[in-house]
Amino acid sequence: MDPSELRGKRGIIAVIALLIIGVGLFSSLEKLAGNVSPGISRIYNILAYLVAPNNIATWVYDWRGFDTLIETAVIYVGAVVSALVIGRGVVQMKHYSEEAPATSPPLEYRTESLTVILRFLGLPAAILLFSYGIMVVTASSTSGGGGFQCGVIMTSAYLLAAIFYGKDNPIRFGKRFLIGIGAVGLGGYTLLGLPGFLTSGYWQYNVGADIWNIVSPTLHSIFGDPFRLSLYLQEGIFYSTPGIIPLINIAEAFNVVGAIGLIYFAFLYGWSEPAEDQEKGGK
Amino acid sequence: MSAYPSNLWSIPLLVVIPILVAVVVNLVYNRVRLIKVISILSAVCLALIALFSSYGYHWFTGLPALRPETLTFTFDPSFPAWRLALEFYFGPLQQVMIFVMSLILIFVVAVASGGLTKRQGPYMGMIFLLFASAVIIIMVNDLYHLWIAVEIGSLVVAGVVVGSGTSVSHKAALKYTFFSALSGAGLAIALALILGLTGYSNISDAIRYLQSVNLGDMSIILYVAFAFFVLSWIYAGGLAPIHPLKSEVYGASFPHGTAMLQTQSKLMLVAIGIVMLRIFGTLPFVREVMLAISVITMMLGVVMALIQTDFRWILAYLIISHSGLVTVGISLGTTEGLVGGIFQAVNDVIYMTVLLLCCEALYYFGGKTSTRNSLGLAKKAPWLGMAVILGTMAASGIPPFNGFQSELILIQAALKVGLPEVAAVILMVSVTTFIALFRAVYRLFLKPPETSETVTEVKVPRALYIGLWFFVAMTLIIGVYPTIVVSFITPVAQAVSIPWYL
After folding, report:
1. Are residues B36 and B179 in the same domain?
2. Mean of the per-residue pLDDT values for chain B?
3. Which of B283, B315, B333 is where one domain is finished?
4. Interface-testing mutation among B9, B24, B26, with chain A (most A C-beta atoms within 10 A)
């Protein structure tokens, strides 16, 4: 938007609207200060320790785990929309007066300007970042949201390698591969609701933690035992299991790698498809 | 025990199936036949689930509710208890809305998979996610989840528009996405304020808490939350003053995509409108503000439709104007108003789908949609010509079509609360809709061609004709037997309604 458009009447209206919104919002916050009602969070806090040792993990992936699924889908949708934007005209309708598909040339790389040190340290740095991402997600049972962080760290490694090596990126993620990874992630997260649905009738019931004792002990063991934790406290040793939370985190990591990787891919390398006749004719 | 379960099987399936379909069709990417089969079968499956499901709740992740008087946990939703789980509800209103939307989905995916060239996976995925977002908004009883669904819904709208692949659609989608940031943030602030005030994200629990305490000077927080909620409502439905953005979205998409977009938008307007009525309806001036926005939208939309010279854009502005008709009824908040508004939403998405499918058919006859052309298409395709005329009559509120029934209820509702001005505007919108539409229909379908240039005819997909006549039949059947739909709406309207004069 051209800032000059905000001069005159429009600018005055915008300033007045902003002032009204600001005053309303700040007066509300001022009234809420010290008066925030704890409501349902009191009960959540009382129960959270029964699942993961970290309350946030329990809140985000168990109590409100379905919320998090839809939030995860937002990242996935963002990636697909980005690909559709960059690859404009890739989807076309017969008989529709289409414009020619937009060409989205990849960014120009000048890897020759990199110093020798950076060029040779790039790959080890990317590998280290990748390993760190794996470490974060494997520790997700005791921390909140390890899956998302893992995905972001891994795609940072991909971006870093792309900056260092351009088209010769040693992390060779193709677009179909990234779409596949994203699909495994979002699809996997979604399907992790199935065991709870089939056994208890409640979608995404945490069958591994089973704090309401509504699934069979066998199923409880299958999903709960691999992630069982022993907590050594002054009061004694306590056992708990986050159940399906670590699995959800792994699926989340796949989704984030696929989605954010696809966004990077589209912006870095462009998005083009062979012409229809070329596809039919083979190569 | 309650007659309604807290683990109704159909609710998660209605949400999860479209998400999984979106993932799978995106994965198979350009395998046209496979995408077609998966999409149509899934859409049929969703319609059947909506049709045959019983009513009840679903408490996602299987957390119970806490009964405050006994401090015991219960899985029975009939007790007034604080919900720990994310709650969805499927009742008669949800059933009729989701069923109609899934019928539209069936024909949209059938028409799209026939018309689209290769690499249609991502586009088809967006159509299913559009369905999922609307279904969530219709069923959810949780403020936080409502916000997420509105967020994803806005992004998916951009995806469907961008998928249409022209520079116009790109501009429309990017503008819409830019404003979605403001609207999404607005809704987030609204829910944060309500959450701070009550401590409950479950809408019923938050309302119960608000009714149990004396807010005093804290009620200003509710007004501020309402203001941000209105922002989101305006944005989701394309009401004034956001109407230019939403009309661009409708006009720049493939017509079948617009059929799905307008369905999502109108049903979201109903669902969010009911949430607003439940939370803020008894506050002074709230419904007056909603009514003013609705009336302005109706008038602006129809006036803009009158000055358009392209069939697509005429429809785009009429969709906006008729969104105002829907929200007028909801804003009145009375039983009759709510019945009229919700009934109008259901009727509107059906007859607009007829007109949009007719618009799609024009692409098979050379793709000219400008009303400056005289194509005389009714001679070449008499069934298409007849369908577009019947669709026009339904949209204009002419008996015996469905539009007449809902507009009549709306006019009666406005008169009953002593607002003849609103009734007059509704009547004006009906008449002007007829003028705007019939002018285009006459030029494109009825008037003989002025030039000797022949219209190239390509085989129109059978699915398009079947869809067209299926929805024409629905406009007629609902018009003659309105109770088929009204009986589903009335119980909810009675439960939510608030007298106009408190």
Report:
1. yes
2. 93
3. B283
4. B26
